[in-house]
Amino acid sequence: MDSNSNNTIKRKLVDQLVQGYEFATRLQLLLSHQHSNHSTDQTRIVSGSGSVPGDLDPVDELLAKILGSFHKTISVLDSSDTVADLSVPIAVEGSRNASCGDDSAAPASCNGGDSVDSRKRLGVSKGKRGCYTRKKRSHTWTVEARRIDADRYAWRKYGQKEILNTKFPRSYFRCTHKPTQGCKATKHVQKQEQCPEMFLITYIGHHTCNANDQTRAKTEPFDHKIMDSDNTILAETIAQGHVNVEVQEQEKNISSVTVAGAGMVKEEENNNGDQNKDYCEGSSTDGDLSLVWQDALMFDDHQHHQNPYYHGKTSTIAQQFSFIDNDQLSSLFDSYCA
DNA sequence: ACCATTTGACCGGG
DNA sequence: CCCGGTCAAATGGT
Fold this sequence. Notes:
Its main location: nucleus. Keywords: DNA-binding, Nucleus, Transcription, Transcription regulation. One of its GO terms (cellular component) is nucleus. The structure is a single chain. With about 350 residues, the protein is an alpha+beta fold. Helix content is about 25%, strand content about 15%. Strands 2-3-4-5-1-7-6 form a seven-stranded antiparallel sheet, with no helix packed on it. The longest helix has about 35 residues, at about 5-40. It is globular. The structure holds a DNA duplex (14 and 14 nucleotides).
């Protein structure tokens, strides 16, 4: 194929799509803002990546569809030299095989299926620890933010590590919905040395869970701009808090720019006791079921002490925006810069 | 009692 | 072998 002309066309298409997507997103935000004036307590869906819970009103639904279309189209364009069919989900390359690490039965090989329920004492069943298949590389991108809950997803911390030559430990989070939906998204967060109030948040993979739809962002009027020079995207959101997040493309990816207005403590709520069971259906029905956020100020210097996490109640809620699914945009920019 | 976090062990890539 | 990433028992909070 003539890769040159191909690229040009692709580029133009992508250009248009990105624009369209952005407009749609803005529209959505505007509308949602209006909405929020009416119904104050409901969180709204933001980027409907296709699946729309039946709870939405027509406008939301329509917007979700529009966004979904852009999303899919972009992803198709993006993911392809070979045009795939539109049913291609959000899943993009990185997460295909290599990422089997989590959702597929990867660990099984280690466990040998002995899912020991009874907790054994340390030392007895050491063998299983750290047993996993390492992901090769899914999409990653890094965000610099003042708040670590700079996104609208619910995360659960699963580890923390001292990193060589760094003052602050790195914390590892995975999507809360991993057990229930097999969502592969993870992130790690590290306090910046030079600027301790800033966190470097690296996202790995994208969310495949849909539970967040209901609880996603509460949209607010905002204004963002994207600059795709140098593989660096700068987004500014003017929400209620001054936020300024810088997203750096790393390894070809990016773009969800998320901002945390004022919130910092998120808490996962187990509305009905077992989040592990099947809450996910609830996401569409249980009104709020909000993913409660749990990230916290754990990175404060005293994290080793007693309650680095604030468990009580979520006092403030992070606000953020995403214009497009990270993977899509990312590779999209990738093709731009290429 | 349940659940999220902590923390040390383990694994695999470089 | 080192180091980053993940697992899972233990711990602590609610």
